[in-house]
Design goal:
Elements: H1 10-23, H2 29-35, E1 42-43, E2 48-52, H3 78-90, E3 95-99, H4 109-118, E4 122-127, H5 140-146, E5 150-154, H6 160-167, H7 171-184, E6 195-199, H8 210-225, E7 231-234, H9 241-250, H10 253-262, H11 266-270, E8 277-280, E9 286-287, H12 290-294, H13 307-313, E10 318-319, H14 327-330
Parallel strand pairs: 2-3, 2-8, 3-4, 4-5, 5-6, 6-7
Antiparallel strand pairs: 1-10, 8-9
């Protein structure tokens, strides 16, 4: 399935998405923070540098907030990747979180992994699993294992129908094969090769309890396929890009936004990832989070907006730029790239 937004300029897509959300009549996110006696979101330190190195992907998932696919050509250059490493070298940022698209398809993926490993950083690869089975990636699995790269892999459901509904026909079975391959080299077996799975709801509702979902995933994947893993991250579907298109087509935008606002959790709001994350786009533009990046909403409030500017200033402090989509991270148990917040 080809997303309509893939053919539009990012700013045009942003305007359309914001207009769609505005029609749902949700209150301003910052106003809700103030109403609950919470401070506006600010970042004073960076624990995780999350880098989207491109939108090329071997899949076209129905829920993808990146709008990635086989025909996308946005890709990080070696020059920009070098600036990412320089930022890690200058600052005590403990984790490099590499995402895409399928990040492994970008020529700079292994450069970033190798250089971050030299700096003794924790490295996360956000993997779609099926990329491990592509003919050109035959050496990818031993490469990741040798460098102890953590694999965080999307598996929306432990049921074939649920995963295939989001990711495409036959993807579940391919994912099972890839997970078995990861287990065979030691991932998920408690020997220092971390394998985490990511659950997204299949429809317009919030994820279930993360601990309960993890127990279900462990039981079903182990009993049916002999698969083991370390942790499950339950992530809310954000009302942007393809998922927002689905909400709009199905007439669920209003009800979904009402659900997110009604489920606002002050505890989750305190722990949102944008307070300790910095998101870097494929072209070196800086964002408060990966979701802002996909909405073409770069950092504001006078903070450096590019890797060049940040390297020149050295200041990591900034006010977080929020929007209606932020209710997705603060609904229910909360949602971040590391799963539920509280």
């Amino acid at each position: 399935m080809r997303s309509l937004q893939a053919t539009r300029h990012p700013l045009a897509a942003t305007d359309e998405q914001n207009q769609t959300l505005a029609r749902a009549g949700a209150p301003q996110f910052d106003d809700v923070l103030v109403r609950h006696g919470l401070p506006l979101l600010e970042t004073v330190r960076i624990d995780v540098l999350q880098v989207n190195i491109g939108k090329l992907c071997n899949q076209t998932c129905a829920h993808c907030h990146v709008d990635a696919g086989p025909d996308r050509r946005e890709a990080m250059s070696r020059e920009t990747a070098g600036k990412v490493i320089e930022l890690l070298r200058r600052h005590d940022i403990g984790t490099l979180d590499i995402t895409g698209g399928a990040p492994e398809l970008n020529p700079q993926f292994r450069f970033l992994v190798d250089e971050a490993a030299k700096l003794d950083r924790r490295i996360i690869d956000r993997c779609n699993l099926t990329v491990l089975m592509l003919p050109g990636q035959a050496d990818l699995l031993p490469y990741l294992a040798e460098r102890k790269v953590e694999v965080t892999a999307s598996l929306p459901s432990f049921r074939p129908a649920g995963t295939d509904a989001q990711r495409g026909d036959g993807v579940f079975q391919k994912s099972v094969v890839a997970l078995k391959m990861l287990n065979e080299v030691g991932y998920g077996k408690g020997i220092g090769l971390v394998l985490n799975l990511v659950h997204n709801p299949v429809g317009a509702f919030l994820p279930g309890n993360q601990a309960s979902l993890e127990r279900d995933y462990r039981r079903e994947l182990s009993s049916r396929y002999g698969i083991v893993f370390d942790r499950l991250h339950a992530i809310t579907n954000m009302p942007i890009s393809r998922f927002l298109e689905f909400l709009d087509r199905s007439g669920n935008t209003q009800s979904y936004m009402d659900l997110l606002v009604r489920s606002f959790n002050p505890v989750a709001a305190v722990g949102v990832m944008c307070r300790t994350y910095l998101s870097v786009g494929w072209d070196g533009t800086l964002y408060d989070c990966d979701f802002n990046q996909m909405l073409a909403l770069p950092v504001g409030s006078g903070a450096p907006g590019t890797l060049d500017g940040l390297l020149a200033s050295g200041s990591l402090a900034r006010r977080v730029r929020t929007g209606l989509h932020c209710f997705g991270c603060t609904a229910g148990a909360g949602s971040s790239c590391g799963g539920a917040l509280g």
